[in-house]
Fold this protein.
Amino acid sequence: MNAAETTGKRPFRLTLPEEEILSPGHLACQGCGAAMAMRYALKALGRNTILSIPACCWAVIDGPFPYSAAGVPVFHCAFETAASTAAGITHALSRLGREDVTTVAWAGDGGTFDIGLQALSGAAERNDNIIYVVYDNEAYMNTGIQRSSATPHGAWTTTTPTLQFKKGPKKNIMEIMVAHSIPYAATANIAYPEDLVKKLRKAQSIRGMRFLHVYAPCPTGWKHAPGLTVKIARMATECNVFPIYEVEEGVYTLNRRNPTPVPVAEYLKMQGRFHHLREEDVQFIQSRVDRDWQRLIKLEQAFGKAAGT
Amino acid sequence: MKKVLTGNFAAAYAAVAARVQVISAYPITPQTTIVEILSELVARGELAADFIKVESEHSALAACIGAQAAGARTFTATSAQGLALMHELIHWTGRARLPIVLANVNRAMAPGWSIWADATDAVSERDTGWMQIYCEDNQEVFDSILMAYRIGEREGVLLPTLVNLDAFFLSHTSQVVDLYDAERIDAFLPPYRPAVKLDVADPRSFGALTSPDYYYEFSFKIQKAHEAAAQAITETGKEFGTLFGRSYGLTEAYRCEDAEVVLVTYGTIAGTAKVAADRLRNRGVRAGVLKIRYFRPFPAEDVVRILGRVKAAGVVDRAVSYGQAGPFYTETRSVLPGAGPALTGFIAGLGGRDVSVADLESMFLQLREGKPSPLVWIGVKP
């Protein structure tokens, strides 16, 4: 018996790949969830990766000409073309016999939920051989915190001031992507890097359109201390605001269940963007989170592995 | 091998002859048959290419940009509204220095909906860094696309090319086109081997945030590339003539040597203008035609040399820059010295209105009256 078995605790073991491909000289803000997402993604995908990056925070984070922090080829593309540019790259690589290279479209929520949705839908319907990663910081952060269709109900942004905060739900991008019958769609969260790496590696082993919705807090836009990024991200999953799950060929798997979910109020109160909310607003948000979680459970019951047998 | 082909077929067969590796295009009247033919040829295995069937012209050019940056020779085709939807990426291609070739079927912009010939769509893309060719016949469409790859891919040029053919007058009109043979074309146009591309063995970032310390020089280099292209166009056009029997330049001067009046024009109107010049010469009027093939780079030297020795010249535009005059007129005017010929600008044939031999004869004769005007609308109904 080793110590871990006697104490019931697992010994510490680093399961993330050790190699750092992203260099530390990037231009992200302190505590940037998007930078963490890229760091883990590159660890998962390796150096045989080409990135198509549209206008988004990452267009800046990678560094100005002639610098680049990514450590893999980066093609900066127009705002709404992450998916269509990546489609061109992957078809060219296939034509040139480079099936060993992974093409990744790497876009923010604005470039995915909003302006890039048409191109994304086209690439998904064609089942182009790309991994599309949206790092979701729930607003147009690169232009300075304007609402996107990924901004959740109740949030302050510069275009949804507290007197007229964002009303209405966040667009359900996962359901939109699943509706395209793509081979793989998953949510992931920078607070769960092993899960994120595992999903990207699984995605890498599949051909066709693979979609990852990655939760990536933005201290600058969410108004929280940079040191709280991971804590807030974890809480988002623990309170069911951002469940982590995957849909493989239409089969739903919830990767994490919270027997006693943290109240959403705990999550909201850590972020300045929600400070204006009244008690009834918080209750409304809680009710919607509960409803969406129940819906997801039903989807797994109906279309999960157990349902399929 | 000679075939009777529409302009759209000529464009599609040129893409095949150029052995393009990735095609991405979206159907739009009157370009549609280009998309259909290429789909068929790819499906039959007669062209070893990936055809990305995108959901818009915007994605079509974005996909070509990605593919070309990854090292593939690409082709796309569009028209009017489609070209306008591509506009952002037209700029992107020019600044990224990707030698993509785009066949644009010149069509009028809406509203009202029009599917007929008008060059305003292409002229609106003037300042994007693309080279622009306007074709007179289907053979020129085929030849221009082949040459566009050769010239565009040349070191020191690295520019995309818009090859324009008039809606219906070329796109849907059948003419004899010599397709040559594949071996000679392959010798003329070797495989695309860019010096720099998206390569995991040599990771670089393309198009990153560029400060005023660098942006200015990138722009300067695009201008230098156009100047290098002018030379490359002349050289390649001559070489093409040696290999295939048809020589090309930035312009084509028709019976200009002794001309007293010259009409400058482009596209299919140039062919009609040649017939008008012939007829007038039979009646003792020394008429000539200067066909502008390349709008960018603009053939300033040719224009000055040829118009410098005539008394009066006119420019016939199937396009208009509202609030100013015909775009080819203003370009021509801008390169002529103050003491140059009296220059008249004619607007004709917008939205596919027929421009007849008689119309062009009347324009020639108007030049002889010695009353130049920057803006003359031909055949406006009351």
About this structure: Chain A touches chain B through 46 residues (CB under 8 Å).
